[in-house]
Automatic annotation (TrEMBL):
InterPro entries named in the record: OGFOD3, Oxoglu/Fe-dep_dioxygenase_dom, Pro_4_hyd_alph, Pro_4_hyd_alph_FE2OG_OXY
Gene that this polypeptide is encoded by: Ogfod3
Keyword entries, A-Z: Dioxygenase, Iron, Metal-binding, Oxidoreductase
Gene Ontology annotations for the cellular component aspect, listed alphabetically: membrane
Organism: Ceuthmochares aereus
Cofactor(s) the protein needs: L-ascorbate
Domain Fe2OG dioxygenase span(s) in chain numbering: 28-130
Protein name, entry field: OGFD3 protein
GO molecular function: dioxygenase activity; iron ion binding; L-ascorbic acid binding; oxidoreductase activity, acting on paired donors, with incorporation or reduction of molecular oxygen
Coiled-coil residue windows: none
Length: 140
């Protein structure tokens, strides 16, 4: 299942950006996030600060998010916000929705603080550098 989801997302990103999916490699960290209104324990838990994935993670060239819960039904707040000059662009998470973008400084973003409930998502990122590529996760 993980491999199938990764391949489908990879193909859509390649199609959208006009590149070959063969030139894209899964990279780390690929992670599951569970965000609620508890206080942050580390700076990595402070998801609401604007950031650039390429700066934060280094190997990311393309970032995707697969949402696993619904905005306003499962949680309040927690929308994904692109910090654009002039006006921000906001994505409301919906279970099954995938958003993706280039990971460079052109896509400064943050997540609004979650006020109630729990927001679930999986981050799946890709690199164009085969030296930073990893294999698909194996579930035990």
């Amino acid at each position: 299942l993980c491999s199938d989801v990764r391949q489908r997302i990879q193909q859509r990103i390649a199609q959208a950006f006009g590149i070959s999916s063969a030139s894209m490699y899964l990279t780390k960290p690929t992670f599951f996030s569970r965000i609620n209104n508890t206080e942050a324990k580390t700076t990595h838990d402070e998801y609401w600060h604007p950031h650039v994935d390429k700066v934060t993670y280094g190997s990311f060239d393309y970032t995707s998010l697969l949402y696993l819960s619904d905005y306003t039904e499962d949680f309040g707040g927690g929308r994904f916000v692109f910090m654009d000059a002039g006006s921000n662009k906001t994505i409301e998470p919906r279970a099954g929705r995938v958003s993706f973008f280039t990971s460079g400084s052109e896509n400064l973003h943050r997540v609004e603080k979650v006020h109630w409930g729990t927001r679930y998502a999986i981050t799946i990122s890709f690199t164009c550098n085969p030296d930073h590529g990893i294999g698909d996760p194996i579930l035990m």
